[in-house]
Amino acid sequence: MSVDVLLGLQWGDEGKGKIVDYLADQYHVIARFQGGPNAGHTLVIDGKKHVLHTIPSGIFRKNCINFIGNGVVIDPVTILKEIMHLQNEGVPVKERLYISKRANLILPSHKMLDAASESAKGKEKIGSTLKGIGPTYMDKTGRNGLRIGDILSSAFQENYTKLKQKHLKLLGTYDFEFDLESLEKEWFEAIDALRSYQLVEGTYFINNLIKEGKRILAEGAQGSMLDIDFGTYPYVTSSNTITAAVCTGLGVAPQKIGDVIGISKAYCTRVGSGPFPTELNDATGEELRRIGGEFGATTGRPRRCGWIDLPALKYTCILNGVTQLVITKADVMSNMEEFKVCTSYSYDDQTSEELPYDLCQTEVTPNYKSFTGWKDIGEKLPDTLDQYIKFIENYLEVPVSIVSVGPGRDELINLSMGDLIA
Ligand code: GDP
Ligand code: IMO
Ligand code: MG
Q: For this structure, is 259 an active site residue?
């Protein structure tokens, strides 16, 4: 049995959490493979909203194993808060959650370093969520990191202190005030609590599940345009967010990857700094933000809004080997008389459907095609929405399986008429 993948094709917040939660009843296992608590995945079940940061979005489904792979970075305090929230909702988290011992830990000092680095950047700041993601991945690749499995070792406290000392030296080079001690107590309490969870050797764990014929869905965080290698560098996150990261972030071989479900909003958003060619700094952008409730699930920051960008989506479909598309938030565009779709860019005296090497340094002008809008969406796609979906399919050369029309678990139109997975 293979591992299917669902990941964001834009700059994050495409609605991954909602769609993974919907699909989770067709899978035995939902696995996160990268990112950390910079993610905010919203699920609306029976009208109640839940935001998950580290825990996979299959946690509400009975009989679903939720696995956090080695590619994820974990803040013990955040994950424990999530666990408490879920337990209060009656979700038996301890039974359903498994964590790879190889996942790296976010220390309180990583968060301080994130904040110090951002504040030193001034106007050029990335717009990080300040969850310590960058410094933690730096320590991982610098071979200094602490991992979840290390919390079981008697040398843990000593290794923690060593790494903290390193961070304190580094923090001393910034003009930045901080108070670590107040964060450390809560952090160590959370570490203590995590010792009683199911911490596993992830490679054998996931590959045994594959061998047993279990259906596995890997849940992406962030979006492909935030990928450390292929996104709008340096305005990106610190992990690979694309399909390739499923292999390294779970420990599965490339030939085990099955369907790749790419998800995009019917328009586009971005939170934080960096290029966004189709951004609307006008009343239409504000309308999309208001109707779409476009405020960050992790930081509450207003999201920047704009038209869908098909050249960027084509790029991320290629990167990920997308086999099916999910288009979300179509309802947000209801009642627009007309809307636009970016089909090419003009830059360097040429018109192209390809992205330039560096979107940050290249002045691009998006070229748009106009579409007639739709009124309300019922059980079926209205004609004009259907035409829009067909246009996306033709441009991206990938079929659309689901059109999502509201935040609730079942507010969607399943175009594949039945099970998504073959
Ligand atoms: P994720 O990070 O990709 O999981 O997305 P977020 O949860 O950060 O942001 C998506 C937001 O849109 C959340 O508030 C969802 O509840 C909401 N949402 C998801 N799908 C739809 C949809 O089809 N229509 C509307 N109106 N809201 C949606
Ligand atoms: P989900 O999984 C949207 C953005 C931040 C910032 C940049 C770097 O909910 O889609 P970081 O904290 O990683 O150092 O921030 O990446 N970012 C996201 N934007 N959705 C996310 O996750 C994001 N995670 C990080 O806003 O611009
Ligand atoms: Mg989000």
A: no
* Three-state SS letters, 90-123: CCCHHHHEEEECCCEECCHHHHHHHHHHHHHHHH
**Using one digit for the tens of pLDDT, what is the confidence trace for 188-213?**
999 999 999 999 999 999 999 999 99
User: pTM here?
Assistant: 0.97
Neighbours of 9 (CB within 10 A): 30
Q: How far is CA 372 from CA 3, 89, 132, 340, 392, in A?
A: 39, 43, 44, 9, 15
Task: Retrieve residue 335's tokens.
Answer: 């009642």
Contact indicator for 250, 202 with CB cutoff of 8 Å = yes
Percent of the chain with pLDDT over 90: 96
DSSP label at residue 347: E
Q: Are 33 and 100 in contact (CB under 8 A)?
A: no
Shortest-distance ligand to the CA of residue 403 = 1
**What's the mean pLDDT when you consider all of the chain?**
96
Lowest mean pLDDT among 247-251, 267-271, 294-298: 294-298
- The end-to-end CA distance of the chain, in Å, is 11
What angle, rounded to 10 degrees, do the helices at 108-121 and 156-171 form?
20
Maximum CA pair distance of the chain? Answer: 65
**Which ligand 2 atom is at minimum distance from the Cα of 274?**
27
Neighbouring residues of 141: CB distance < 8 A, sequence distance ≥ 6 = none
319 token code pair: 């990167």
Residue 127: which residues within 8 A CB-CB, separation 6 or more?
235, 271, 272, 273, 274, 301
Long-range contacts of 397-401 (CB under 8 A, 24+ apart): 397/317, 398/262, 398/317, 398/322, 398/323, 398/324, 398/325, 399/324, 399/325, 400/324, 400/325, 400/326, 400/327, 401/261, 401/324, 401/325, 401/326
> What one-letter code names the amino acid at 313?
L
Confidence of residue 417 (pLDDT cuts 50, 70, 90): low
Ligand 2 centre and the CA of 264: distance in Å? 16
* Tokens matching residue 375: 């009124």
Report d(CA 16, CA 36) in Å as an integer. 14
Question: What pLDDT is stored for residue 416 in this prediction?
Answer: 84
Distance CA 302, CA 270 (A): 9
Cα-to-centroid distance, 383 and ligand 2 (Å):
35
Q: Is the pLDDT of residue 258 over 60?
A: yes
CA angle 340/345/346 to nearest 5° reads: 125
> Is 13 among the residues known to form the active site?
yes
